[in-house]
C-alpha cells in the first residue's frame, strides 16, 4: 500500500515546489517608474561677498581653513570654505525678475582633489502662488552638468514633501556670481 502512495507524494511535492517557486520569483517585467505628483522649476542667484560688493552680496564665507581668508575663496578647490546664503529665487533666469522667495542655507566645499560641495538649504516662498518652504540636502559634484540632491521635507503647500531636485549651473562669473536652475520633482505630496 505504501508503494502506491509514493508516485502520488512525488507528484504532490513537485506541484507544491512549482507553485511556491513561481509565487516567490521576481516579476518578469520592468518596474514601472513613478511620475512626480508635483514638478516645479526655479532659479536661484548667488552673489558671493568679495570685500567690495556688500550692497548686492547675497552670500558670505563664514568659515575658512587656516591658509585662506573670508573674502577670497580658498585654493585647492575651495576646500574648507563654508558659505551661508540668502539668495533670491526667480521663475526665470533673470536676476532682476521679481523674486518668488529666498534660497536660505549653506554650502561647504568638502574635497581637496575634486571640485565639489555639500548643500543644506530651504526655498522659503513669499509669493501668492506658493506658501511655505521646501528643504534640500545633499552632495553637489559641481563639475557634472546635472546633479541630483534630495528634497527632504517642507512646510505649508509643501508639507512633508519628498523627492529629487536636479541642479544645473545655468551661469557663473568667476567666484562672485552663479545661477542654478533647480528642477524639483516631488514624489510625496500631501
UniProtKB/TrEMBL annotation:
One of its GO terms (cellular component) is apoplast. Dirigent proteins impart stereoselectivity on the phenoxy radical-coupling reaction, yielding optically active lignans from two molecules of coniferyl alcohol in the biosynthesis of lignans, flavonolignans, and alkaloids and thus plays a central role in plant secondary metabolism. This is Dirigent protein. Keywords: Apoplast, Secreted, Signal. Homodimer. Belongs to the plant dirigent protein family. It is found in: Secreted, Extracellular space, Apoplast. InterPro entries: Allene_oxi_cyc_Dirigent, Dirigent. It holds the Pfam family Dirigent. Gene3D superfamilies: Allene oxide cyclase-like (2.40.480.10). The lineage of its organism: Eukaryota, Viridiplantae, Streptophyta, Embryophyta, Tracheophyta. The keyword Signal applies. GO terms for biological process: phenylpropanoid biosynthetic process. Residues 1-25 form the signal peptide. The keyword Nucleotide-binding does not apply.
Amino acid at each position: 500500500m505504501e508503494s502506491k502512495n509514493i508516485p502520488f507524494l512525488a507528484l504532490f511535492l513537485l506541484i507544491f515546489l512549482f507553485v511556491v517557486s513561481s509565487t516567490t520569483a521576481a516579476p518578469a517585467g520592468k518596474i514601472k517608474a513613478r511620475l512626480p505628483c508635483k514638478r516645479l522649476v526655479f532659479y536661484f542667484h548667488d552673489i558671493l561677498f568679495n570685500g567690495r560688493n556688500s550692497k548686492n552680496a547675497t552670500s558670505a564665507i563664514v568659515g575658512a581653513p587656516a591658509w585662506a581668508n573670508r573674502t577670497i575663496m580658498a585654493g585647492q578647490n575651495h576646500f574648507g570654505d563654508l558659505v551661508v546664503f540668502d539668495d533670491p529665487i526667480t521663475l526665470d533666469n533673470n536676476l532682476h525678475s521679481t523674486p518668488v522667495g529666498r534660497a536660505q542655507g549653506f554650502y561647504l566645499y568638502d574635497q581637496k582633489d575634486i571640485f565639489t560641495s555639500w548643500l543644506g538649504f530651504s526655498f522659503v516662498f513669499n509669493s501668492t502662488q506658493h506658501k511655505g518652504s521646501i528643504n534640500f540636502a545633499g552632495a553637489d559634484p559641481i563639475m557634472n552638468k546635472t546633479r541630483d540632491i534630495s528634497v527632504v521635507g517642507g512646510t505649508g503647500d509643501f508639507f512633508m514633501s519628498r523627492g529629487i531636485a536636479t541642479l544645473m549651473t545655468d551661469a557663473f562669473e568667476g567666484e562672485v556670481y552663479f545661477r542654478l536652475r533647480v528642477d524639483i520633482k516631488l514624489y510625496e505630496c500631501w
